Amino acid sequence: MPIWQHLRVALVAALAWALLAAGSLAMVNSAGAALLIWVPAGVVVAAFRFTPRQHWPVLAALLLPLIYITMILLGSEAIASIAFTISALAQAAICALISVRILGGRTALPRSARQVVGLFGAAVTGCLAGAMIALPFRAEQTFAEFAYLFLANVLGILIITPMVLHVGGIILRIRRGRALEFDREMTLALLACGSLCFLALRVEGISLMPLLVAAMVAMAVRFGHAAIYLTLISYAAVATVLSLGGENPVAFISVTRDQGVLLIQSWLLTLLATALPIAAMLMKWQDMQFELIRRNSGMHENLMMLDLSEQMAGIGRWRMDLVTGEQEWSQRMLEISGLPDHFEPNFDDLRELLPDKGLELIGHLARNRRAREPFTFDYKVNSPEKGERILRISVLNEFDITGRRIALFGIAMDVTEQVHRVQALDLARGQAMRLAAEAQKLANTDPLTNLPNRRCTFGRLESMVAVAAKHDSALTAIMFDIDHFKSINDQHGHQTGDEVIVQVAELARRQARQADVVGRIGGEEFVWLLAGVDARRARSLAERLRQAVESGIEGSPLPNVTISVGMAQFRAGDDGDELLARADAALYEAKEAGRNQVRRAA
């Protein structure tokens, strides 16, 4: 994001802080409201989290005078206003720094109980630091007043910060042309939660507060993270309205107004601590679903390979669903067992074919019920047409996400009369697999350099862009090509030119990390994709590659060459083509500037 956009974020955050602070204090001083959540604290933390850390000084420089001026206008003394301003900025910076490290991304959501605990710890740590800075400059206050203000800041950070980031994401999607969808169901559910909170706070003699916990959990399960924060905001808004005029918002228990306010704040924290782990667990469950879909897709490809193996090697396959009892037999499996094509075997039929009524087979399956790897055994069956046959069976257990065995997948081969064919069959099956692997390698590998080719490289790029967009992680695209390559071909011949390309490819392969992708996308042009690397580290790696090519390989008879390098960092909303286009533009700048250098896209 350009620096001017970060300046705009900082300016908006500062103005929002000023307006919210003035409005909140007006409600307290003029309307007698109990301010349960200090909303400005969440706004400032969101601004720090949204802004890359290298631009934090700019953000603080813009926030500082506006917050200070607001404090002066609200009646604070000059020295106290400076202290309160520094307190607010220090509090926000500490919370943002710890939160980003815990979550692994500036706008990421908690995906585990550990991260939820870390977020609470970040809020408490930042608020304690801010309170210690401001404490000497505050008017004398009781412990209850200190606790009230402290909890208001903690709640503001934990509830308002993610909501502001969520709203920011919605605004970005609207700016990219995506329509804003109105969720009527969630809106009605929020109104119902607000009404329930009103009843829970106003009904005397009975506590309905546990119902608020149930409603909070239901919102988390049904709508996810955003609904948690909206529900808590609705609870806080109802309690604030009930406190207008200095009233005690709590009626179901006999306490003072200050005690009632602290009670509601503690309830809000409890609700948040209850709902966030549930939402995190649901997100993790969704990730597991996506992984299961991916594995099922891989299983489908494996089945296709098994069909080929059946035809070439005479192998039959079957699957048994342990939940429904249904079985699926391939055509070859029916042939091996001596059964007619239209036969639909069930477990009772299978037991009748076995000399021991299936006891040995059941024993094999029971002993290996927890096995995660395939297990193999030989077994005898009675075929109506062929008599006793010996099958070599390999079985793989299938498990659901809870670890319960739900199905058996097996392949079988008749080895009664042709044991000596085992080696030949294994060779044929291995040859089929090798042919498939070689075909896949040829389709995805550049034959000259043995690097991923253009098709494979672009496919990996799209996958890496999808991961970076989903997890808000870093991704760098580096494009480089050989300087004056045409003159090398003209002076030394195309054979030498090809050898130069191979040497540059080898140097790039040596510089790349194990998880990186280095591909040749045409002629003397290459792409290097680095995931999880910030801009500074990526530039250092690109410069190291440039120097390695310039130095060449010691003892190589090839002419010395240099490369020009362009690099670009993934930005929210980029697709693979846009990322490479910016890297290509940077490469062009490097060429125009004299070659043999690294340029980074704006």
Question: In words, what does this structure look like?
Answer:
- 61% of the residues lie in helices and 12% in strands.
- It is α+β, with helices and mostly antiparallel strands and 602 residues long.
- The chain folds into 4 domains: 1-181; 183-299; 314-444, Beta-Lactamase, CATH 3.30.450.20; 454-600, Reverse transcriptase/Diguanylate cyclase domain (Alpha-Beta Plaits), CATH 3.30.70.270.
- The mean pLDDT is 82.
List descriptors.
602 residues, alpha+beta, Beta-Lactamase, 5-stranded antiparallel sheet, 61% helix, MASE1
Assess the beta-strand content as a share of residues.
5-15%
Order of helices and strands: HHHHHHHHHHEEHHHEEEHHEHHEEHEHE
Which consecutive residue ranges, at least 5 long each, have pLDDT under 50?
A: none
Q: Output the number of helix runs.
A: 19
Give the C-alpha Rg: 33 Å
Domains counted in the coordinates: how many? 4
Largest sheet: 5 strands, antiparallel
Gap between N and C termini: 9 Å
Shape: flat
Strand ordering within the main sheet: 2-1-5-4-3
Find the structural class using helix and strand composition.
alpha+beta
Membrane topology: Multi-pass membrane protein
Keywords: Cell membrane, Membrane, Transmembrane, Transmembrane helix
EC number: 2.7.7.65
Pfam families: GGDEF, MASE1
